[in-house]
Amino acid sequence: MKLSQFGYDLPENLVAQHPAENRDESRLMVLHKKTGEIEHRMFKDVLDYFEEEDVFVTNDTKVFPARLYGNKEKTGARIEVFLLRELNPTTKLWDVLVDPARKIRIGNKLYFGDDESLVAEVIDNTTSRGRTLRFLFDGSYEEFRQKLKDLGETPLPRELGREVEEEDEERYQTIYAVNEGAVAAPVAGLHFSKHLLKRLEIKGVKRTAVTMHIGLGTFAPVEVEDLSKHKMDSEQAQITKETCDMVNEAIDARRNVCAVGTTTMRTLESSVSSNGHLNPFDGWTNKFIFPPFDFSIANAMITNFHHPKSTLMMQAAAFAGYDLLKKAYKEAIKEEYKFSTYGDAMLIVD
């Protein structure tokens, strides 16, 4: 398929600036793949579509405060540093993005915090905005990581066009986040409240998790018209044997398996056996899913409404069917659903 096929006009006022007051009270559009029917519900109604012994798979990654601000030596220019990936804990090497990038060259030093107790030296250029930094810090590794947390802020996507607010620290994080390592939240999971999880449990719906530490690769723009030529950045993922056992039992019993979010779905599809079962996994994946694609594990998916030409929209189209997804997005704009990170949700079922 072509990049241009995923373009559409998204009214600016439909990009959600803030989350719904209650997590599970965002709107929910339900797409039925077989019939093409579209329903309009509330997110807390999601359990109406699942029964006892069905399985929800979530992404339990935890977002860390990845955006820091430092000052360049001599000039004092304010520089944004977005932490992407730790390369070496011993030498404190990190892959980062810097802004404005034109001012940051190899050999430059950046100073962080009022007391300038954290310093970073630029040792490599990786992309136009990418740099490798070596942090210099007088303290233990644990103290260094705590310093990064203290100085960092919630890495809210720039597309929201606003400053980080106090509520974002809690709301830009799923309630079941445990494994720290993501620089962006698995946003489909933001709709789950403790109350809704309890209701699912009472109904007998099972829940398990995979881990995918979301990097900016998920959100990197596609710059080629032919989608088969787009290369995703690798992201770290893990699937335990316990998760595999629960999912495979559901598949064998012909129960529903629901992937909560595109990152969960990509993780599941990165480790499929020849007989259509899920295998344990611990490594990196650069799986890029776009239509047409044969899914092996989940037969239901929860996702948000995504920006035009995004890899997230492409994956949703691969699962729902391109024509149905385009129809759903047209309907969502007409009905004024909220889009993007803090937006409303879509449930795609057979």
What does this structure look like?
The protein has 350 residues and is of the alpha/beta class. It has helices at residues 141-151, 168-171, 194-203, 241-252, 262-269, 311-320, 322-334, and strands at residues 27-32, 38-42, 55-59, 61-63, 67-72, 78-88, 93-99, 109-112, 118-125, 130-137, 179-182, 206-213, 235-239, 257-260, 281-285, 300-304, 345-349. The strands form three sheets. It has a nine-stranded mixed β-sheet. A six-stranded antiparallel β-barrel has the order 5-6-7-10-9-8. It has a two-stranded parallel ribbon with strand order 4-11. α6 packs across α7. The longest helix is centred in the last third of the chain and has 13 residues, at 322-334. It is globular and about 65 Å long.
Give the gist of this structure.
The chain is an alpha/beta fold and 350 residues long. 19% of the residues lie in helices and 28% in strands. The strands form 3 sheets. The chain has a 9-stranded mixed beta sheet. Strands 5-6-7-10-9-8 form a 6-stranded antiparallel barrel. It has a two-stranded parallel sheet with strand order 4-11.
Count of DSSP-assigned helices: 7
Which residues form runs of ≥5 with pLDDT under 50?
none
Major sheet summary line: 9 strands, mixed
Query: Span between N and C termini?
Result: 23 Å
What Rg do the Cα atoms give?
21 Å
Secondary-structure element order, as H and E? EEEEEEEEEEHHEHEEHEHEEHHE
Q: Give the strand content.
A: 25-35%
Structural class estimated from helices and strands: alpha/beta
What topology, given as strand order, has the largest sheet? 2-1-17-16-14-3-12-13-15
Residue-averaged pLDDT: 95
